[in-house]
Amino acid sequence: MPQAWDLEADVVVVGFGAAGACAALEAAAASRQVILLDRFCGGGATALSGGIVYAGGGTIQQLQAGVQDTAEAMFGYLETEVGDAVAPGTLRDFCTGSAEMLAWMSRQGVPFDGSLCPDKTSYPSNRHYLYYSGSERSLAHIAAPAPRGHRAVGRGTSGRVLFARLAAAVRSAGVIVVTQTRAERIILGESGQVTGVECLSMRGGPAWSRAAHRLLHKLGKKPFLYAGSLGRRMHSPVAYLESRYATPLRVRARTGVIIAAGGFVANRSLLREHAPDYRGGLALGTVADDGSGMRLGVAAGGATKFLDRVSCWRFITPPPAFLGGIIVDRSGQRICDESLYGAAIGEAMVLRHDRRAWLLLDKTATSSAWRQLRDGWHWFQLLAAVYLLTRARVRGPTVAKVAAKAGVDPGGLAATLAAYNAAATTGEPDPAGKPADVVAVLDRPPFSLIDLSVRPRPAYPAPMLTLGGLVVAEDTGQVRRADGTGIKGLYAAGRSAVGLCSRSYVSGLSLADCVYSGRRAGRNAAAANTNQHE
């Protein structure tokens, strides 16, 4: 019997963030008819992000800033971050095509700029749109460092600008966007080939229910990001409207379905199951980052990997003066090079130090930090810095007394500080490998210990995002089964899939992977032979 389809297209994309938008654009460029589905109204975690895209090898913006970079140097650095998440050939392909990828985004209308940020920071100010977004300087002995964090031009966190431009390009390309529609199941034909998607959609509900669904979800996005429990409560009426007014919708896919529905950071049960060490952080995403995309692929036979990999961010800059301090654990031992990217600091804290750490500063460093707060940072950076310099800080006239106040071992801290200062004074390499230009002797009392521990703190949250997902063929993006065979007609991209950042994260690598993997999936889904349905 023929299937009864409500809508049909050549390629159906599930999820309207950066990955889904890029997949749809590539499929449409191949003259395929494309339907793009989204549970809400598009944007996802992309629109809430900082809008950073990791790119290098000589982008136009790097050239504007006078930055020398090569694809080989980019590969040399990322090889240490990416590890075994993808094959070396895939990483090299990404690096070689990186500058062209950013140029492609510019052609879609996404604005970038070569204004270079002079300081190490968690996120550049509104005056700067190119910066060192990872640990490039800290690992300069491995590969020539270069700033590769390209921020979309826009005030504040500019992910909304990046998504808005991609969304406009999607609609201009003739893609049919079906919002307020939740994908429930991948439909398989008798041969095991993907034929479509079974959904629940608000589009058949009363006009008032659709309007309320849109408004309530919009109002709850920021509260979910900054106060997860409040955001979940605000989402309850949205879920109720879906359960009450959503009706079945069947969408036929003639050549392929692409899953690009985000990660699972909003799913606490999945986090407890796969990454129990990561608690006390802030879910960086929306309520739609609940693993639903991944579950669609698993139900169709797909395998998963790296579900235990979660990125937890512990930034200590701005202010830059904090880089001169040393980060220690309860025993007073240093946990890492303080100039590393915030996700590397967070990983060390979570996996090896029970989520606890303190930053030791002296009077010179704290005075410099206060002065640097006048330099025009974003409100969320200022809020965190002031909190760290006040509520999270204890002081003492000696190292022993400040350690006792903070609950850190005094003897261990004194020995660590002595080794650090000795190397700084003689010009020897820092014991933890910190670059010489940010090493500073800490010898002027009073001393301060600032609590960096990962726990719920609105003024100093620890954002987290999941990095694992569906296993895909790295040349096509096709979803794979546990035995390595591909599921015909099914593709995945972005945080629904294993990708470039599934081992470790540096700022901009997730969005870059969304673009890279989304375009790859879109091209290959479009190139597949047309399905012949029963």
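Second entry:
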Amino acid sequence: MEKGLVPLKDLVIGDRTFEIPIYQRNYSWEKNQWEDLWNDLLYLDVGKRHYFGTLLMKETGRLKRSGLKSFGVYELIDGQQRLSTTLILVKEIMAQLGKIDDENVRAELIDLEKNYLKYREVYKLELLGDDSEFFRRYVIDDMEYPDEVLTPSQRRLKEAKIFFRTKLEEIKKADPNHFRDFLIQLKEKIDNLEIIRYIVGNDSDAVLIFETVNDRGKLLSRLEKTKSFLMHLVYLSEPTDPADSLRQVNESFSRIFRYLEGIQTNERGRNLHEEDIQRYHFVTCEAEGDRDTSYTYLDFLKGKIRDIYRSGEQQKCLEYVLEYTKSLEKAFFALKEIVTYDLNDEVGTWLKKSFTLERVAGFFPLLMETWIKFKNEKEKMTEILRLLEIFTLRVYVVGRRRADTGESRAYRLAYKVHRHSLEFDEITQDLKYFANEYENNEDFQRDIKVENFYSKIGNRDIKYILFEYEKYLREQAREPLEIDLDSILSEEFQIEHIWPQNPEQLPDNLKEIHEHCRDRLGNLTLASKSWNVKWGNCRFEIKREKYQDSVLRVQKELSNLKQWGKEQIEKREEQIAKFAMERWKI
């Protein structure tokens, strides 16, 4: 197969199939890219051609057979997003043509399937991993898959199929009499999309060309640019045959992309982007904990590696690239283990608490490095996680410090752990020191007793504190805990003001006192939503009887009191504050 400018049909039609090499990303095009392709074809005049970019391929020498027919297998090094999307559109054109009762159309459909989609059991395009099966079964063969089992890339494939189906249905609805002609013309436009077909003989040549290709489509992410750059430097630095070193980098990045998929399909990792993870890793291995430098990590990395290469130390350059790649893979794997950890042990318990408080982002570099170092020493890992929860509760929740408070220090600490200059005792001492510096005991006591606690602290955080107090009361009463944190944090439970927020039923001489006491921690408790709706605004004398039947100890304990006012609120606040000082003790 010759290289050069050819129409798409000359690439796809014939005795050849395409596979995506394992080091490539999964399907990543989204609505913007689908819109571009659709509009390019829709507004293209019949008979004219449209340049569709470069397709970079490597001939594998392998064959696929169906009966007596053989197909040469090509790896699609660059161009999988465009080709995948185009075949999805072809399939949807076929689906619409299949609804037309016309013998000529039926013959056209048979040729379309053989030429663009599959010949018997041999499919024209094989995607990566599980995406390959999904592409064959859902996109090509129209089998259904439930949404809840789909990965992000599979969901994008499904949404692309729906997108083009919707566009075609809109055209059909607007002009049903000419819809058949529209479909035929659209298919001809796809046939004639112009591409530059470039075939390489080995991975080394592919790397060299891929680094300089700048095709239209979804821009490469920084992680993909990092991979491309590192492979290019391997190609340049290896004095003999770079194949083995290239394979090492390829396989590492293949695993990195799989780990990333595992991270982003988990609830804990839904907001983690690949650039964030790479930046966290860079903080620990290169930036010496410097947060500002970490935001320009790719420029820094390129500059450093190029300087080594230009100094003439090719072997040192090669070793650095391979070492950096392995270190990056280890970081992604550690984070994947952290966000997917589901064992019901002490580590799992404290991990859940940290993620529940929703302020873990600044600690990710430290979490990654301590996990790598101590994940097999559960007592040590548990203590580190416990201290991170204490820091979060004292500094961010009760102290109301900015979300990035202490981030630079945590970054520098992560760097020291990575460089093996800090051991467990030093790490825990530093964490205690940081927490005490930002929110010492005196500050913590003051902030937990503020008059406007209810409006100052987030509703979810108050629930968290009161749930921990509920656990404490259960332990004191030697009662089993019959409810979990997830339930308390759901909409089924609310924060109740024991002395109701509405002062209308109070005598005038108590209204000013009520104003200063109603939002204090001592006046807050947990209640089921239904309970709070029914009884929340009632006088304490009425509530007192209802508290006795509550499933929550933080309500039930109130039934022992005969009245409720300033004195009782301050006493209860003192009790909760004493508990908090012990529970979140540095």
